[in-house]
């Protein structure tokens, strides 16, 4: 029995949630193979992409973590490995020595310039199964889901569960 058939009758929201994890895992597995990103992992590639795309000056570890949607500790570990490979430099902030900034090295820009055609081809091939309208809709929906995830907390989830239980009691 195919995976799709096994998911018949499952709430589409649950299929979507699982599908996001499945796609993320598949992309990470592909990207971490030697044939895709070379000496970089997908997380290292993503850090450098964020560093070059979203910051006009070297961001702090915390700023970069916020942009990437991950923890300070994760970004620091990734950045340390990138520094060992010569892609970035970690420097202390001039005004506050407690702050560590991530500075792209020349190798970082050269890497992306040399991969631009391959990276674009990968994305275009991946999304070739979607219409332009589906791409726009999915892009919009992913931003909305990311915004919602940023607003969520364990306390909010507990409130949702309690309200849902109350609705069931009132309707039952």
Helix and strand arrangement:
Layout: H1 3-6, H2 12-32, H3 42-54, H4 61-68, H5 72-84, E1 88-92, E2 100-104, H6 106-127, H7 132-151, H8 154-171
Antiparallel strand pairs: 1-2
In summary, what is this structure?
With 172 residues, this protein is mainly alpha-helical.
Commentary on this structure:
The chain has 172 residues and is mainly alpha-helical. The protein is 69% helix and 6% strand. The chain is built from 8 helices and 2 strands. The chain has helices at residues 3-6, 12-32, 42-54, 61-68, 72-84, 106-127, 132-151, 154-171; strands at 88-92, 100-104. The protein has a two-stranded antiparallel sheet. A hairpin with a 7-residue loop joins strand 1 and strand 2 (100-104). The protein is globular.
Structural descriptors:
single chain, 172 residues, mainly alpha, two-stranded antiparallel ribbon, 69% helix
Arithmetic mean of pLDDT: 90
Task: Indicate the low-confidence ranges by residue numbers.
Answer: none
| Distance, first to last CA | 36 Å
Q: Based on DSSP secondary structure assignment, what is the total number of beta strands?
A: 2
- What's the SSE pattern? HHHHHEEHHH
Q: What fraction of residues sit in β-strands?
A: 5-15%
Number of helices: 8
Question: Helicity level, as a percent range?
Answer: 55-70%
């Amino acid at each position: 029995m195919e995976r799709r058939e096994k998911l018949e009758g499952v709430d589409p929201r649950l299929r979507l949630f699982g599908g996001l994890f499945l796609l993320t895992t598949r992309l990470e597995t592909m990207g971490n193979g030697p044939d895709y990103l070379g000496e970089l992992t997908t997380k290292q590639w993503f850090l450098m992409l964020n560093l070059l795309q979203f910051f006009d000056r070297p961001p702090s570890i915390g700023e970069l973590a916020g942009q990437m949607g991950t923890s300070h500790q994760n970004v620091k570990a990734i950045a340390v490995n990138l520094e060992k490979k010569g892609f970035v430099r970690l420097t202390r902030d001039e005004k506050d020595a407690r702050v560590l900034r991530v500075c792209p090295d020349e190798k970082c820009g050269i890497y992306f310039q040399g991969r631009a055609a391959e990276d674009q081809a990968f994305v275009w091939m991946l999304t070739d199964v979607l219409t332009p309208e589906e791409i726009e809709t999915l892009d919009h929906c992913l931003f909305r889901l990311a915004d919602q995830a940023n607003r969520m907390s364990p306390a909010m989830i507990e409130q949702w569960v309690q309200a849902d239980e109350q609705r069931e009691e009132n309707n039952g």
